[in-house]
Design a protein that fits this description.
- Chain A: It is a multi-pass membrane protein.
- Chain A: It catalyses: a quinone + NADH + 5 H(+)(in) = a quinol + NAD(+) + 4 H(+)(out).
- Chain A: This is NADH-quinone oxidoreductase subunit K.
- Chain A: One of its GO terms (biological process) is ATP synthesis coupled electron transport.
- The complex is a heterodimer of chains A (about 100) and B (about 190).
- Helix content of chain A is about 75%, strand content about 0%.
- Chain A is an all-alpha fold.
- In chain A, helix 1 packs antiparallel against helix 2 and helix 2 packs antiparallel against helix 3.
- The longest helix of chain A has about 30 residues.
- Chain B is mainly α.
- Chain B has two domains: about 140 residues, NADH-ubiquinone/plastoquinone oxidoreductase chain 6, subunit NuoJ (Four Helix Bundle (Hemerythrin (Met), subunit A), Up-down Bundle), CATH 1.20.120; about 50 residues.
- Chain B is about 70% helix and about 0% strand.
- Classes of the chains: A mainly alpha (about 100), B mainly alpha (about 190).
- At the A-B interface, helix 1, helix 2 and helix 3 of A face helix 1, helix 2, helix 3, helix 4 and helix 5 of B.
Chain lengths: ~100, ~190
């Protein structure tokens, strides 16, 4: 147990990012894929807040706000697209999403 | 000392919750674990002195985003299992876990050497919310407004996308033909 430094937060953020990465790579259910994307964005937010704290500069917190805003709009647009897709094909399976294949 | 205890406790809880989100088969468990993980993330913001960010995290994520996802979960009938058919399951799990561990090592290896001392607070004598307001509405005013417009566009786009009658045809065929098409779809 020693003092918590910036490194601890960056390592934690990296671990969370890696968990989200595994989710993005493994998931076939589109809704759960979105959950994994949220994990990625949150991991980045932790790094931003920690850097803001340890360098005494509020820019990191500002960027965390913008990341949250982007996450919110991603949810809105993404769920809209997902609803359209579900109406057409009655499924949210990623394997069925092949209309862009040549 | 207390900071260290809190950090390790919340780090463990957050990692556990997000691990559940990524690995569970049930969408409901994934949603609940994700919401819990978001709340634990806000604990880090409070530890780091970013009080306003922590409050926003709880309000936006566990209030707004989770409500949207809960709506989506109910809409998509996730009780029916999505087949996650993948060639050899162990190879895929092993490779993706290996890739994740490599990412951790690549990013973490240069960081564990030296510590950096905190310089907080940035501006003396005012609270975090006031500081954030000062910086946000002077230095970052234009990005803030652009983010607001982007949220508006996203909201309108979500409504337009979800509200359109896109399942069979837009306007050209009548209801009887739509029914016929639906029956054909069911039969095929």
């Amino acid at each position: 147990m020693m003092e918590i430094g910036l490194n601890h937060y960056l390592v934690l953020s990296t671990i969370l990012f890696a968990i989200g990465l595994v989710g993005v790579m493994r998931r076939k259910n589109l809704l759960l894929l979105f959950f994994a994307t949220e994990i990625l964005l949150n991991a980045v937010n932790v790094a931003f807040a920690a850097i803001s704290h340890y360098y005494g500069d509020l820019t990191g917190q500002m960027f965390a706000f913008f990341v949250i805003a982007i996450a919110a709009s991603e949810v809105a647009v993404g769920l809209g697209l997902l609803i359209v897709w579900y109406k057409r094909h009655n499924s949210i399976d990623l394997d069925a999403l092949t209309t862009m294949k040549g | 000392m207390f900071e260290a205890v809190a950090f390790y406790l919340f780090a463990f809880l957050t990692i556990a919750m997000f691990y559940i989100t990524v690995t569970t088969k049930q969408a409901l468990y994934a949603l609940t674990a994700l919401a819990a993980g978001m709340i634990f993330i806000s604990a880090f913001f409070f530890i780091l002195g970013a009080d306003f960010l922590g409050a926003v995290q709880i309000i936006v994520y566990t209030g707004a985003v989770m409500a949207l996802y809960a709506f989506g979960m109910m809409f998509f009938d996730t009780t029916r299992e999505v087949k996650e058919k993948q060639g050899n399951k162990y190879i895929i799990v092993g490779l993706s876990t290996l890739a994740a561990v490599l990412v951790v090592i690549i990013f973490a290896a240069p960081m564990v050497s030296e510590n950096i001392v905190a310089l907080y607070p940035a501006i003396d004598g005012v609270g975090n919310t006031q500081e954030v307001g000062l910086v946000l509405f002077t230095k970052y005013l234009i990005p803030f407004e652009v983010a607001a417009i982007m949220l508006l566009v996203a909201m309108v786009a979500g409504i337009v996308l979800a509200g359109k009658k896109m399942d069979l045809s837009i306007t050209l065929i009548n209801d009887a033909e739509i029914e016929e098409e639906k029956n054909k779809k069911v039969l095929s």
